[in-house]
Amino acid sequence: MSTQSTSATEPSAQTATEQPLSRDDVFHLLQNARRRGVVRYLSERDDDAVYEMRDIATQVAAWENNKPIAQLNSDERQRVYISLYQGHLPKLAEKGLIEYNQSRGRVESTPRLEQLEAYVTTDTDEQQADSEPANAEDSTSLKYYSGATAVSVALFVATTLGLAPAVIAGSLATIITGLFGVTTLGVTSRTLR
């Protein structure tokens, strides 16, 4: 096999890396989960370091199989390793996102990789900030529905024991349905605000 390497000193590589990636290139590069995994792996680490392809393949396999690295079997590692070696890493190198020495199994990110990082990195603070309003809404909804359920159970028990007036006993289903209808309207109106 031939050695593929992208060097910043080559004129064609230099002009390619100076231009921003097109939308089509971004879409094409990120449409594959393993390429996204490589971009994620490199973007979560030191920009100036050189990484072993074996380590990248192992981490991508762990993410892909939703397992800790220690629980991966050799087939899971090998499938990812082969696809990265034969296709995905050469494709990323061709677009100037990484420097890939195929014969040595070494990978290094280039500044151009930053164009894809926003699509694969996760900021836990942003995720928590985005999920807090949803959790607050869920909490409010839970309180309303819990209250409606408690009132419904109390009415049912009172009616069953003969403690509720006869008027309530005859229309218990209507009262409970109305109570949940009003609760649903209240929760819906709060959500739409």
From TrEMBL:
Residues 27-108 form the DUF7344 domain. The keyword Transmembrane applies. Residues 1-20 have a biased composition (Polar residues). Pfam families: DUF7344. Residues 1-24 are annotated as: Disordered. Keywords: Membrane, Transmembrane, Transmembrane helix. The chain crosses the membrane at residues 144-161, 167-187. The keyword Transmembrane helix applies. Coiled coil: none annotated. This is DUF7344 domain-containing protein. It comes from Halogranum salarium B-1.
